[in-house]
Amino acid sequence: MMDDKLNFSYLFGSNAPYIEELYEQFLENPNSVEENWKQYFTELSKQKGAVGTDVAHAPIRESFANLAKQKTSGGNAAAMDEAIMKKQVGVLRLISAYRIQGVGSAQLDPLKRIPSKDSDALNPKFHGLTDADMAIPFSMGDGDFLGQDKMALSDIINNLKQTYCGHLALEYMHIPSTEERRWIRNYFESVLSTPHFNVEQKREILKELTAAETLERYLHTKYVGQKRFGIEGGESVISGLNYLIQNAGKDGVEEVIIGMAHRGRLNVLVNTLGKKPGDLFAEFEGRAEIKHPSGDVKYHMGFSSDIATPNGPMHVSLAFNPSHLEIVNPVVEGSARAKQQRLGENGRDKVLPVLIHGDSAFIGLGVNQATFNLSKTRGYATGGTVHIVINNQIGFTTSDVRDTRSTVHCTDIAKMVAAPVIHVNGDDPERVCFAIQAALDYRKTFNKDIVIDVVCFRKWGHNEGDDPTLTQPMMYKKVSQHPGVRAKYVEQLIAEGVVTAKEADDYIQAYRDALDKGEHVEQTTLSNFQRTQIDWSKYQGQDWREDVETGLPAADIQRLAEKFTAVPEGFALHSTAKRVIEARKAMAAGKQPIDWGMAETIAYANLVTKGAGVRISGEDSGRGTFSHRHAVLHDQKREKWDDGAYVPLRHMGENTGDFLVIDSILNEEAVMAYEYGFACSAPDKLTIWEAQFGDFANGAQVVIDQFLSSGETKWGRLCGLTTILPHGYDGQGPEHSSGRVERWLQLCSENNMQIIMPSEASQMFHLLQRQVLSSYRKPLVVFMSKRLLRFKDAMSPLENFTEGSRFCPVIGDVAERSSNESVKRVVLCAGQVYYDLAAGRKERGLENDVAIVRVEQLYPFPYDELKAELAKYPNAQQIIWSQEEPKNQGAFYQIRHRLEGVLADNQKLSYAGRPSSAAPAVGYMSKHVAQLKQLVEEALTK
């Protein structure tokens, strides 16, 4: 008895006479052979040239029967085995070619402008296969088309074309994981990339296309010439997004966070999230309620709602987004991570980030490379993101693909993390929804990113006032001839008997009628659904002087230190780390002053003990760029990946907050944006982004300008992100000296941020605690001196940490003198330059003549505190602002008006510091020393 599945080894060699006999029996009487052989020979008889079952003169007779009749001599049998083996290998190569290169021949362009890139490898002849082989059943290796593992070559080719070269195409063979490749292959090949939606589902897709198209046309005619960045030509994206929201719940998703730029945003707000059309019209007409100091344009606004789905309520939010395309993406990821973490062990299954991209921006902006790079790292992974690309095939109106990328597809950037890419024709909304379902299933299975590239077009220019025919005449001739996505789908559904033309028109009229009333056709949002969320009322404080107890009893400090200086038995500490731990024990006992690293560690330890989580990220944050933190200890006898790291602050006891310190990827823009998003969704945690050097924040300037400094006044978004910027002039050249204090201060207004330049370790301790324990949720920017991390004079005694102690926005003069009336000059400064000035005063014996006051908080400016300090010196008419930065940089020009606002009538403000400079600092040590000497001299005597 032969096997159920025929094996080619039966057909040749010593079995040839037996096969010949079976074949002759089949020719005489098809029913005289077993069913499997009958099916096999019947398929052969269908080969072109056969007549009935008499195939004596057919090609198959030549390719099979004649071979089979040859004598079974060893040489001939071996040659025959090799011939059929080559054929089988050729078939497998052909299948592989379709899986790899089929996308080049796919029917993806709705405008049919892109010529087919037929590869030679997709031609059977390229693999040694001929017309005579088309009816021969071949094995598909480990493939599975429609549940079969063997079929005629002609059927194999037809199935390959339908799976890989139709309105849907795949790129997944770049994925290293065999398991993933096999999963994707079986998912699509088993159904030939063909969705099977029922009548009701098809009607629902049509309703969504109708809503998307009708809204755009309504706005275009009602608000002529106004920008809206419409999605006409890509309406299938709205259907796909709605399908995602309605179906993600079956996998346990409870919340979807969407990040997208302008294109289609208004449509998503109304037709996906349920924003009331009347509210949108009010924004177009300038009647919208003024809720925030500055506000923002309508196509930047965010929104959130609870939407009814078959699997229960789904909370959906669209993140606020500025004009800088794609920058919102890491913000969404950070927000998702914070919410996932709050939901506990299965949080990644419950919160799904969805990012909607433009084609040119997707591959053109580096923030996407960085966001992909974050996607699988330990401190930033969110369990996989669904990426949807609205591929208008044009980018900006004047763009040409030859100028916008160096890759074949705009999605090729996703291959860096081995993400699969599903390309789909935007004129086929059913396959767009099918691709969405595949993405959901893939994410659930592998917890990885996946990309859906919706190849569509854009009906208008970059915006509705842009004439695209000026630079894209031929493309827009095609666009003008296209009937629209909805019209083509209506035609399909009428042909299928799903709807009538009248029913389809009724959908339009019903939607327009609702728009005329400023209402929805179908209300899917839930107005009374109660969900667990953060109580933001606790973080609405507006008084930065809020009295918060940040000091600790000495006994508590010692108790905390006992825990975070303990290491596991047998743990091989580095000698430096061992010295640090021993010193911290002495500091906690009051035997020596507390340095910067210890001050930070006590703050973190107290916060996690109180249940507040701490998250620190930066390019060297575990050890600290300047080797001061040592939050992560490394066993000197074990590799990192073999659990050779120990984090003491994770072992502070039961029921404590989480502590996570991350050595991040080498990128500032995406990481700061990520931490901004995290902090916005985790106001109860201390979230810190630390630059390796303060000027590294330059790489994140978009985040600083468009989110951190203005997010509250534009969108009402509170954020308590702490940014640590190592800063200080130590003769190390133009780079890495300055954190660009002036840039940050220039952005300060409306109490939007806190800018601090502390000069003592205890100040950092109180700052970090205040940031979490108070109700004041504003970004905190700390210009942390590099030199002071180990500078003995900047260490603080234990009593500066104990009960009753506080952060001091202004630190008065500490020099001893018989009377303050002798002081003729007060020098104001911030940061480490204080110690240069203090040393210069001592050398010159000027303690009685000059007072030095430290302005630790540069914004919000401490007017009352500084005024009170200056009042101590009634005879001081000379008030000097001294800084180590050049005059055109640093704080002077940004706070000069504030300083002058606290002076008495008989006092005059002057400047002492380096002269104006194009570079932040000099590169010659000799010149640096000379400048420092001169600025100290000017501040104290001139």
From TrEMBL:
It comes from the Bacteria. SUPFAM superfamilies: Thiamin diphosphate-binding fold (THDP-binding). This is oxoglutarate dehydrogenase (succinyl-transferring). Keywords: Oxidoreductase, Thiamine pyrophosphate. CDD domains: TPP_E1_OGDC_like. InterPro entries: 2-oxogl_dehyd_N (IPR032106), 2oxoglutarate_DH_E1 (IPR011603), DH_E1 (IPR001017), KGD_C_sf (IPR042179), ODO-1/KGD_C (IPR031717), THDP-binding (IPR029061), Transketolase-like_Pyr-bd (IPR005475). The lineage of its organism: Bacteria, Pseudomonadati, Pseudomonadota, Betaproteobacteria, Neisseriales. E1 component of the 2-oxoglutarate dehydrogenase (OGDH) complex which catalyzes the decarboxylation of 2-oxoglutarate, the first step in the conversion of 2-oxoglutarate to succinyl-CoA and CO(2). Its cofactor is thiamine diphosphate. It comes from Neisseria lisongii. SMART domains: Transket_pyr. It is an enzyme of class 1 (oxidoreductase). Pfam families: 2-oxogl_dehyd_N, E1_dh, OxoGdeHyase_C, Transket_pyr. Residues 594-791 form the Transketolase-like pyrimidine-binding domain. Its EC number is 1.2.4.2. Belongs to the alpha-ketoglutarate dehydrogenase family. One of its GO terms (molecular function) is oxoglutarate dehydrogenase (succinyl-transferring) activity.
